[in-house]
Amino acid sequence: MQWYDGPARPDRLPPPVSDPPPPAEESRSDRGRSYGDGSPGARSRDPDPRGGPAYDSDPYARRPAPGDGMDADVAEVGSPRRRLPRWVRFALAVATALVVGWLALTRLTAPDADVRVSRPRFVDNFTTRVDVTVRSRVGDPQVVLAPRPSALPGLEFAGVNGAADPTVQGRVEWRSIRLPGHGQRGFSLYWKVRDCADALAAGEREVAVPLRVVGAGGAGSTLRMSLGVQSGLLPSVCTTDQGTGRPRLVDTGPVRGAGPSSLLVFVTVQNVGGRPLTYRDTVVTAAPSVRVVSPSGDSAGPDPVRQGQPRLVPVGEERTIPLDFRANDCRVPLDSAAMVTMRFTGGEASARPVELTVRLADSWENFLGVCAES
């Protein structure tokens, strides 16, 4: 490449700058319009050819900034609010009135006490316990009356304890308890199983107990205690041995003379099965043909079997059965132990008898005495 250091070539020189043309001479009318506002430096405003207001002919003129008081009024554009139909507003008003009225009525007719019930607990294999707490909602004292549950298949209501103490027989007597104002009291309900077959047949039957609470003026209310379903009240015997009754020996005394030639023995038996037991008879174990007399009634016994009543042993209960032995009865095997077999019917009458062996003494000779000479 060759470098040229000489004077600039004519064809490479920039074009000459010409002076701007002089402004055209304004007419007198234009000069008057330019100074129409009294200021020679004021900008000219040309009328809008469409008939509108004058507009600035200077495109570089300063526009008014927002917020300097020169903003144009712009109307907000939005959809108009639609009002609900008249029937809808009427329905809402009626519904509101009904709800408020119902709440007020519920408040006025609410009972003066409420009740809480615990889950069932089992005292033993045959008894169910339910704890109840009654709480007052008013300042006046009230009285809680005895609950009267309806009959349940296979179960027996065994009573209530609270302010009462158990009796000698083990059952509790009810006494009305006083409920102080804004206070609470507790008690327990008891059920005993009498026949697991009937109780299990009831299944998921709901158990509800009414409880009457009376105020000082005589007005009262009835509370509803829901205890769940009947299957939840069944003790363990209805799970382990619900098919039949089972006798268990409790005691074999006392032994005393019932006459000049007889001995009377009281045998106490408990039914630990799930169905009631019915006593049938007693035989000598070594000689099943020898039957022991069981008197139908004895007022001197601890728990006599009355004439005409079945010798029933309920589930979980104890019964004392008197046995009458004839002294000097040589029909018994004197060389064997004095043992008898008590026979019961458990459940169905046609079922196989349930037997209980009872040992009375080491030998019949010691139990009955020397056999009389023939």
Task: Explain the overall architecture.
Keywords: Membrane, Transmembrane, Transmembrane helix. The protein has about 375 residues and is mostly beta strands. Among the domains are: about 110 residues, Immunoglobulin-like, CATH 2.60.40; about 120 residues, Immunoglobulin-like, CATH 2.60.40. The protein is built from five helices and 19 strands. The strands form five sheets. Strands 3, 4, 5, 7 and 9 form a five-stranded antiparallel sheet that branches. A four-stranded antiparallel sheet has the order 8-6-10-11, with no helix packed on it. A hairpin with a 7-residue loop joins strand 18 and strand 19. The chain is elongated, with a radius of gyration of 55 Å. The protein starts with about 25 loop residues before the first helix and ends in a 6-residue tail after the last helix.
List keywords for this structure.
mainly beta, elongated, membrane, transmembrane, Immunoglobulin-like, 374 residues, transmembrane helix, five-stranded antiparallel beta sheet, four-stranded antiparallel beta sheet
Helix fraction by DSSP (H/I, runs of at least 4): 10-25%
Global mean pLDDT: 75
Strand content: 25-35%
Write down the secondary-structure element order. HEEHEEEEEEEHEEHEEEEEEEEH
Q: Number of DSSP helices?
A: 5
Rg value? 55 Å
Q: Low-confidence parts, pLDDT < 50 over ≥5 residues? A: 163-170, 297-310
The CATH architecture term of the domain at 247-368 is Sandwich
- Which structural category fits the helices and strands? mainly beta
Question: What top-tier CATH class of the domain at 247-368 fits best?
Answer: Mainly Beta
Global shape: elongated
The CATH topology of the domain at 247-368 corresponds to Immunoglobulin-like
**DSSP E strands, number:** 19
**For the report, how would you describe the main beta sheet?**
5 strands, antiparallel
Distance between the termini: 171 Å
Keywords: Membrane, Transmembrane, Transmembrane helix
Transmembrane segments: 87-105
Region (Disordered): 1-74
Biased composition (Pro residues): 13-24
